[in-house]
Amino acid sequence: QLQLVESGGGLVQPGGSLRLSCTASGLTLDQNAIGWFRQAPGKERKGVLCISTSGDVLIGASSVKGRFTISRDNAKNTVYLQMNSLEPEDTAVYYCAATPWAYCSGYMHDYNHWGQGTQVTVSS
Residue 98 to residues 12, 30, 64, 91: CA-CA distances in angstroms? Predict the structure, then answer.
């Protein structure tokens, strides 16, 4: 069974950078689109970015455009979320999730495997 584990979260000052990793076990990721989502305190979980198996990117949050990038390394069974120019509004628990297909979906219910999440806090 596919399991996803996020890592790389932490406390960072505004303007700083973090790279989150989503590593899979139980299945190779080369056949699944992987999305990053985030949930801020008291708010709904929302999509951030998703990458298909062919490398196409779906932007879920316009606020991250130009600051966040998503990439995948199939040899390492890992998808990354590079976050630059971080803002306090980016503070959230970040989750990765997989679709059962090669392409991304804009619907959260299409993602059928989820990690446990990693906390990102942007504060001075």
Answer: 27, 11, 20, 22
CA geometry: angle 46, 62, 11, nearest 5 deg: 65
CB-based contact 30:55 (threshold 8 Å) = no
Strands (DSSP E) found in the chain:
3-7, 10-12, 18-25, 34-39, 46-51, 57-59, 68-73, 78-83, 92-98, 113-114, 118-122
Model pLDDT, residue 84: 98
What are the two backbone dihedrals, phi and then psi, of residue 33, each rounded to the nearest 5 degrees?
Answer: -75, 145
**Model confidence pLDDT, tens digit, residues 53-94:** 999 999 888 999 999 999 999 999 999 999 999 999 999 999
> Are 8 and 22 within 8 A, CB to CB?
no
